[in-house]
Structures are given as structure tokens and as C-alpha cells.
Amino acid sequence: MEKKAQEYLKEHPELEKLYGTSDGFLFEKEQDARSHAKTLANKEVSTFMPQKEVVVKQVNAKQDIPFDYEGEDSRLLEDRAFLLARYEFLAEDTPAEDITTEDLATEVQSLEEMSFDK
């Protein structure tokens, strides 16, 4: 159903969300999906949001990150690059240049929780 929902969302870029029921029907309005789901054995309603392309920029530890990562596992830099891209996707903004990786992870977690609460 995810593929079907993403195709529909691509065709209707004005939609911010789409709702699906366990029998595969898609609805533009949550209330319509919930009403239909009441008639089904599985009353679950799934929410779909458009997938956006995220561009991850190459991170150079000595130039782009204001921290000394010498001796650290290279995975840390990959995690930071992921967190930066995730933050930019969720916040539709860039984080402060001097944000620590730990603070960045906390901010991303907070933004993700807010996006699921909507």
C-alpha cells in the first residue's frame, strides 16, 4: 500500500497526508478513512506522507565540523551526516553550525516526535 500511496501523493502534490485502511483503500481525509475502517475487521488506519528527496552533502571532519574527531570511528561522521540530512528534512532548515552531534541527535529525535504527533 505504501507504493500505491506514494504514487497517489506524487500525482497530488498539494496533499500533505494520505490515509489508508487495511483493505487497501486510500483516503484524502482522515475521518473518511476512520469511518471506513470501522466497517472492517482490522480497524487500523495508516498515514502516508510524501517522500522527499534528501541530499546528503559530503562531510569533511577537518573543515565542515567544528570538532576534533581524530581517532574516532569513521561511523561517527556518517552518523553526523545522516543526522544533518534528517534535521534539514524535518525542520526544513539547517542547524546551527556549532551544534554538537549529541545535541543534533536530540533535536532530530524531538522533530521526529513532533512529526508523528501531527
Structure commentary:
The protein is mainly α and 118 residues long. It folds into two domains: 47 residues, no CATH class; 66 residues, no CATH class. Helices cover 45% and strands 8% of the residues. Strands 2-1-3 form a three-stranded antiparallel β-sheet. A hairpin with a 4-residue loop joins strand 1 and strand 2. Helix 3 packs parallel to helix 4. About 13% of the residues have low confidence.
Give the tags.
single chain; 118 residues; mainly alpha; three-stranded antiparallel sheet; 4 helices; 45% helix; elongated
Span of the ends, CA to CA? 21 Å
Helical run tally:
4
Major sheet attributes: 3 strands, antiparallel
- SSE arrangement, N to C: HEEHEHH
Q: What is the total domain count? A: 2
Structural class: mainly alpha
Strand order of the largest sheet: 2-1-3
Query: Which spans have pLDDT < 50 for at least 5 consecutive residues?
Result: 60-74
DSSP E strands, number: 3
Q: What oligomeric state best describes the polypeptide chains here?
A: single chain
Strand content: 5-15%
Question: What is the averaged pLDDT score?
Answer: 80
Gross geometry: elongated
The helix fraction, in percent, is 40-55%
Radius of gyration: 19 Å
Topology:
Layout: H1 2-11, E1 18-21, E2 26-27, H2 30-37, E3 45-48, H3 74-91, H4 101-117
Antiparallel strand pairs: 1-2, 1-3
Helix pairs in contact: 3-4
Task: Tell me briefly what this model is.
This protein has 118 residues and is mostly helical.
